[in-house]
Structures are given as structure tokens and as C-alpha cells.
Design a protein that fits this description.
The protein is α+β, with helices and mostly antiparallel strands. Helices cover 32% and strands 28% of the residues. The chain has 2 domains: 162 residues, Fructose-1,6-Bisphosphatase, subunit A, domain 1 (Fructose-1,6-Bisphosphatase, Chain A, domain 1, 2-Layer Sandwich); 142 residues, D-Maltodextrin-Binding Protein, domain 2 (3-Layer(aba) Sandwich). Strand 6, helix 5 and strand 7 form a beta-alpha-beta unit. Helix 1 runs antiparallel to helix 2.
């Protein structure tokens, strides 16, 4: 894939962020999500790819746009796998919280793992701790391994975890070791990315979150040189059947970062919808709006932060308002 495509993907996440930000703090999750999906789909029509959504906003009969298996782009080469979350943080946006993003990951055809909307146990770290994590080990063992890799006391580590009742035992074990914890209400893609950003104050992501978000995080971490492992978590036999229908025969498989995102050419783009640790949210101006985005490429581990000002006419063209 050409490197210029990375900037085209940013234009798509910008459109989704601009549209969904109009619903920030208005308490309507469905409207915010639908606005992002519709704007993202329209923006994809101008991207020169023959794209297939491998992680999208649901199944074809559940969500009318950007469903898994949908074709996006102009239909011209290159053939491209697309993983997306038009609005990662619907509740965050509706409540006016932090760390809501619009996200796209892209790679060559057949290189992004397609997973249904199930749960996934995850552990993620940045480049300095690459190769030392093991999802089959205990949290204590992983904390010790990461502390050694980072050459710091275990007590100096900070672990980011989704604030959910299911993590009570995990939180107790981490605290018993003296490590610090940052609980987040939603947005574990941002949490995973933070492990690979110098100065974020986050060293490890642990816990159970969405499987599609796990693959999106893996794409970003591949671009950043980080590491991640994941394992699907099933609530019942129906969940296992959904995994098998998606082509995942081994329901006990431990997915490495390379299992989730293969190949040498991976791109990741995100635009802030609300303010967060990595990106500011959309800012409304008198005659338009301002967006803050990041774009990454795996071959060079390049990270570009993009601040853009959109005039009112441009916004209307992008999001159809």
C-alpha cells in the first residue's frame, strides 16, 4: 500500500469524528454512533482502495452500514483489509467523557484477523517490554517480567484496566504487588496505545475487553513496535459457535500480535472525538472546527500528529450536514 493512503485514512476518521462530536454530551449513544458510521462510509467512497471491512460495526443484517464483509473505497487496487470503529466510546461521547476516538486500521488483503463482537482477554506493552509478556502467566509474573525489562521497581509500574466488576480479582492481585492502577470507563484501544507512548505514564494494559478493539489495538502497537497477546473469552456455547463461523476453529488459541495483524505494511489512523490522553477532541470554531489526529505506519514506526482546521463548507461536504 502506498504511504499516501495513510493520510487518506485520516480524512475518513476526521469525517467520523466531526459528525459524532455534534452529539457529544447530549446523552444519545445511538445517534452519535450512527452519525460517525454514516460520515465514515461516505468518506471511504473517495479512498483509492479495493477495501473489505474485516472488523466493522456488526453483521450485514444487524447494522446497515460498514458491516463486516462490506466493500469500501473506489474499488481500485490495492486490495485492502479494513478494521474500524467509527466511534470507539459511544457512551463516552454521549456523556461528554474522555478518550472517544474514530479509528481505522488497514493492511494488505488477508492480513487482519476477523473476529466477531466477542470478549477478549488482553495484555499489551510498549517496545521496551516486547517479548516478555505471557497471557498464560499470572498477573504477578507478568508484572515482574515487565519491571525487569523496563529496569524499574515493580512499584513504579502503572497498569491500565477497564473499570468493570469482572476485574476485581485482577485489581486485587496487582495492588498486592504494589503496582499502580489506572481505571478507565471505556476506550481500551487508547489504553493499549498508551503503553507504547513515551511519557504516557502507562506501562501495561491488562484485562478483558472487546475482541474487535483488541485487533485495532494490535494494529497500532505493530506500528509503534509494541507487543500484545489476546485470548477469546466465551460466555456460552453460542459465543464459541460465532467464533467458529468466523473461521476461528481453535477456541483456546492465544493470539499474538502477529496473529492479529500480519504483514509488513500496516497503517493506523485515529481522530479524537472528545479530549483524551493521546488526542484532543473536536473543537468547534466560529466558522468551522478543529481536529486532532494521529497516523502511524509499521514499516518505519513513524507517528504523525495532525492538527487540522476545517471550514464550515468542508465540514458540510464531509459529513453531509
Amino acid at each position: 500500500m502506498e504511504r499516501n493512503l495513510a493520510l487518506e485514512f485520516v480524512r475518513v476518521t476526521e469525517a467520523a469524528a466531526l459528525a459524532s462530536s455534534r452529539w457529544m454530551g447530549r446523552g444519545n449513544e445511538k445517534a452519535a454512533d450512527q452519525a460517525a458510521i454514516e460520515a465514515m462510509r461516505r468518506a471511504f467512497n473517495f479512498v483509492e482502495i479495493n477495501g473489505t471491512v474485516v472488523i466493522g460495526e456488526g453483521e450485514q443484517d444487524e447494522v446497515p452500514m460498514l458491516y463486516t464483509g462490506e466493500k469500501v473505497g473506489t474499488g481500485h487496487p490495492p486490495e485492502t483489509d479494513i478494521a474500524l470503529d467509527a466511534l470507539e466510546g459511544t457512551t463516552i461521547t454521549a456523556l461528554g467523557g474522555y478518550n472517544a476516538l474514530s479509528i481505522i486500521a488497514a493492511a494488505s488483503k488477508g492480513c487482519i484477523l476477523s473476529v466477531p463482537d466477542l470478549y477478549m482477554e488482553k495484555i499489551a506493552v510498549g517496545p521496551r517490554a516486547k517479548g516478555v509478556i505471557n497471557i498464560e502467566a499470572s498477573p504477578t509474573q507478568n508484572l515482574k517480567a515487565v519491571a525487569q525489562a523496563l529496569d524499574c521497581p515493580l512499584e513504579d509500574l502503572t497498569v491500565v484496566i477497564l473499570d468493570r466488576p469482572r476485574h476485581e480479582a485482577l485489581i486485587r492481585e496487582i495492588r498486592s504487588n504494589g503496582a499502580r492502577i489506572r481505571l478507565i470507563p471505556d476506550g481500551d484501544v487508547s489504553g493499549a496505545i498508551a503503553t507504547a507512548l513515551e511519557g504516557s505514564g502507562i506501562d501495561i494494559l491488562m484485562g478483558i475487553g472487546g475482541a474487535p478493539e483488541g485487533v485495532l489495538a494490535a494494529a497500532a502497537l505493530k506500528c509503534l513496535g509494541g507487543d500484545m497477546q489476546g485470548r477469546l473469552v466465551f460466555r456460552n456455547d453460542l459465543d464459541k459457535e460465532r467464533a467458529r463461523e468466523a473461521g476461528i476453529e481453535d477456541t483456546n488459541k492465544i493470539f499474538t500480535l502477529e496473529d492479529m495483524v500480519r504483514g509488513e505494511e500496516v497503517m493506523f489512523a485515529a481522530t479524537g472525538v472528545t479530549d483524551g490522553d493521546m488526542l484532543k477532541g473536536v473543537r468547534r470554531l466560529k466558522e468551522g472546527a478543529e481536529t486532532y489526529s494521529v497516523v502511524m505506519r509499521s514499516p518505519t514506526h513513524t507517528i504523525r500528529f495532525i492538527q487540522a482546521i476545517h471550514c464550515a463548507a468542508t465540514i458540510k461536504a464531509k459529513i453531509g450536514l
